[in-house]
Design brief:
four-stranded antiparallel sheet, 32% helix, minor pseudopilin epsh fold, alpha+beta, elongated
Length: 161
């Protein structure tokens, strides 16, 4: 039978075998730390992006809720109700006193980092519909990465895309 030195642990010299009692080498520690730092930075970046999308989705839902609330007020109180979007102040809200602008506590600020693209006024009639021949309003809110579009149909249905 032929001797194969690959299966004989005594065939290797002492310097060729790994001694686990010596611990980790400096290069192994550095490589390990680099891997942890790279994975950690990717994780932080992904979480940050996810949070920005979450904030934008939440803001879009809040604006849609405000539009639906205005529609319900118009129907219940049998009167016209306007929702004002002010790009300059980055506010939106229901115009409770009917003067066509946001006064005092009527306006709500958009969350930090989210902006309204254009100023607009959306009017709901007592039926809950928009006035005849009104082009479907299209409000866009944006953050540094993406945007959401809130539209209101002629029948008063609100959707967020």
């Amino acid at each position: 039978m032929m001797n194969d030195c690959r299966h004989n642990p005594r065939a290797h010299s002492a310097s060729e075998t790994y001694d686990s009692s010596r611990g980790r080498g400096m290069m192994e520690v550095i490589v390990g730390l680099l891997v942890v730092m790279i994975v950690g930075s990717l994780f932080v970046h992904i979480v940050r992006l996810g949070y920005q999308v979450y904030e934008l989705n939440t803001a879009g839902s809040t604006v849609a809720d405000e539009l639906n609330k205005a529609r319900q007020i118009a129907i219940k109180q049998n009167r016209k109700v306007s929702v004002v979007f002010d790009e300059e102040k980055n506010q939106y809200g229901i115009d409770l006193n009917g003067n066509g602008k946001l006064d005092g506590a009527e306006g709500e600020d958009m969350p930090e980092g989210i902006a309204i693209s254009d100023s607009a006024v959306i009017v709901f009639l007592p039926s809950g519909n928009l006035p005849p021949k009104t082009k479907d309003p299209h409000i866009v809110i944006t953050n540094s990465r993406t945007s959401r579009s809130i539209t209101v149909s002629a029948m008063g249905a609100v959707s967020v895309e």
